[in-house]
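FW: tagging you since you asked about this chain on Friday. Here's the raw sequence from the shared folder, copied in full. Didn't touch anything.
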Amino acid sequence: MARVGSSGPRLFEPAKALIRRQVTDLFNDASKGERPVLRRGDALFAPDSVAWRVNGDVVTMMIGGVSGLLLQMLHPAVLAGVWDHSNFRADMHGRLRRTAKFIAVTTYDSADNGVAAIDRVRRIHAQVRGVLPSGAPYDATDPALLAWVHVTEATSFLNAWIRYAEPGMSRADQDQYFAEMATVAERLGADPVPRDRTSAETLIQSKRPALLTDDRTREVARLVLKQTVGSRRTDAASRIIMQAGVDLLPAWARHMHGLPVPLDLPVIRGGAATLARTLRWAFDQSPNRRIWPADIASYPDAAPDDRTQ
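HL: got it, structure written out here
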């Protein structure tokens, strides 16, 4: 019995490794030599931080990412920056991948690499400016605009985590998440930066009078929601993630986008929860979850499938 019990879990390793490879391919462009981010003990956040707990869950981060993008683009200046200065129509997957990589680097990579990634984004922001259809100027370095992007993103990630991973998350831990993520926002130049849940919700509500939708908003939202999360084999998972992201939106934001509550909402929520549990199972006890020392700069080639974002 002992031998059967000990070998049983190993029977699932090929399936778990296949899932890990698929996730790796989703978040990393092998043709460009991209590799997953190591979890480092010298990261901007400590291994026992709330940020490490929340930001490493693949499915909830994707669901939160979709919801966050839909919220962000309701601000005309955010939408204009994407519309005028990116090739989102041809490379929406690449944009989503780069966002995931930034979050992974600033959460788990060495503090030096995290700060370097933030500095790169600041240099990009310095080139993003223009004029809105209304004639008003916009500038991606505007602290208030950066605060909007940050608060919608952080709130969406946290809400997805609570719904599909930790429904009983304490208010203290929620506040701690905002306090930790403020580190990145402040380095990017955002202001004001909320440090607790109440401040975050207050900031979002204060911005509502400035939000709007138009033909450009609807086009970008359509492109976001039609994205798949990989190959045709994963279309069902993609639909679940996108619809779960819509469901996660505040009712007022869903109304502004003209997006109805999914008719099969129990199926969407159940499917998202199952998908999240499956990926956690695949990565449980994986070397991906190891905390690597500072002298290790990349994954050992001996474990190419034990990787994620």
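FW: The chain has a mean pLDDT of 88.
HL: agreed, and The longest strand covers residues 129-131.
FW: great, closing this out.
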